[in-house]
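FAQ: What does the model actually see?

It sees only this:
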Amino acid sequence: MQVPRARTFMAVMVAFFVVQPRPAGAADDKKRAEREALKASLMQVLQREPLNASRVAVHMLSLDDGSVVFSHNADELLNPASNVKLVTSAAALATLGSEHRFETDFLLEPESDGIKAKTLYVRGKGDPSITTERLFGMTGDLFHTGLREVQDIVVDDSWFDAERTPSGYDQEDTDRAYMAPTGALSLNWNAVGVYLRAGDSLGSKGVVELEPASDYFVVESTLTTGDKRARRFSVASDAAGAQQKILVRGQVPQGGGAMSVWKKIDNPPMYFGQTLKQMLVARGIKVKGKVKPGVTPPRSRLVYTATSDTFDLILKKLNKVSSNFIAEMLLKSMGAESRGAPGSFAKGLDVVEEFLARDVGIPRGTYVMKNGSGLNDTNRFSATQFDKLLRYMYERFPLAPEYLSSLGIAGKDGTLKYRFDGTDAVGRLRAKTGTLENVSALSGYVQAAGGEKFIFSMMVNDYPGRSGPVVRGLDALGTAVASVGSTQGPGRAVAALASEEKPSSPMAEVSSRVKTYLALTSQRDPRNIGFLRTAWRSEKDPAVRAVVAEGLYQSNPQDYLGVRTLLDSYSAGSEVYGRLRGVARELSVEVPGLGSLVELAANGNAEALSRVVELAGASTGDVPAEGEMTEGLGAVARTAPEELVQALRGASDRDRDAAVLLLSRGFVQAAEADHPFWKSLRKSMGAADPKLADFARGLEGTLSRQIAEAKAPKPAVPPPGAAVAAPGAPKATAESRPGG
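And it is asked to produce this:
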């Protein structure tokens, strides 16, 4: 009797739980609340300036359940800048494999005894990672094969076609290292280090040295030694047939230590070959003849093959530091490996498009991709497409670990090393940055504080003003996602990161802190970088932060992140430049930060040039500040004249008028008829771009008039009681051309 009753009770209970609808659990309620808080925080950021005045696309996806967490203009095709490298690297990893190694072959004619050779053939296969150090190691290995004498060196670049740069590179006429060409034989990312230092005495000739040095280079220098403030110079790199011409002008400070810049070269195989010749001689192998281009004969005898690191390690160099050179080299390598030599950009792009269509599910024609690096206004992708690619690579084992580990880690390394400081994103977010003029992007992965994993893609185009506020906005969006599940939550995290610093300290205290940081800046010691980074994060006053940023830049002028910090921290407004002018008066020094911005502008940095023109506008009415700006603009006009014309063209009317007036004063003071600026201005007046030509002609007319007015004799002040000319009487006039 008891058993049937027990069975009946159990059946009823089972039926009750099956039939009754299960109420939503507390975990589901919490998740919904977190998602709503995240959406609200993201919208709050997008509604702030300058994102609300820009074209913005955002797409976020949960990797845990596949749901779309947030979407804003996600299907709009925008310029992704260097986020294109996410596509290039994914296709290269899938095509070449993580264990792929690039080879460079060294061969001799078949009848050679291996000791004395008529010709040493060097056949490149697109290795993007050969450096001076690696090349010297190769010469050591050749020495140990027994080779002791070579007549000629033939550099074989035929693995790639003759087209050196892809679409997009033609939009920018510059010799900067990030514009370096491709080559099957390449060295040092096809860039050369130019090192400058002062001479023995004030006014003496400055010293110019190249790394690596070889007969490939011809140096023309008018570099001189100046006082401690004379850190304004320019270095230009121009093709000269089978050689490269390096032109140096300007001044370097006495006792200021060595300074360096990197410039692209134009003939990769000859650069490689001439450097190899120099190193062979240093290693004890005689080279009696010449370096010349050519093709390796089929019967040549292989004596040594140099191999690169595995591709997964090269991939880290591509994405963590955003190397344009490696990206374009990979495009050609994919073409050569998959479609046959010679590798070309067209073949490489075809391989990428096939990968996206076949593997990822992004059809051809739904995006625009013209190069592998994302340089300039050439490519268009949507945030949805990037998330689709990121999800595919995350789910494709064993490629996923190599792909994810190639991305910068927030607050830790790569281009994200100094971003997201003090937020939940540090160590949790891995992403690829993208930066161009009026373009900023960030796409990648993040595991939130609560454990959920997300994919995100964020792109901003056509934003007004400086890039700093845009970058802070993107960081706020990333921080919001990383804060899901934390005690702080997305809302408070966004509020803390997106808020603008305001002047809060008394001027006396600001001056005292600035004086301390200026002392560190003057040391130019890389060992101070860690301390200065911490100070930059902790200082709340924007004027003080700008001075700390200058210290970071001066501690390592070659560090892109230091340059970026200075440009993002220094503004022409009253909260930075205005307060620093007051500090300068109190401390009897040049306005802090101004010299570094002028230095960057004098080297042709486009954003620094724009900032200097803005500062010229902000200096109006402040006589000492106008004097400093006159000197600074004069230095820029001497070493970066063409870039200055472009900066003036893009400036506001107010800033342009102020800068041109100060510039004219500088020309009057210099009194040089052959000042480099006039030659560049005439070149712009004959430009193919009619708008640039019209602007240059107008600028020439304005400067001529202002210089003439400045040179005109001033009417004498009549003594007391002297007769005054009646209204309408003729006035003295003077006309003068620039330099006349």
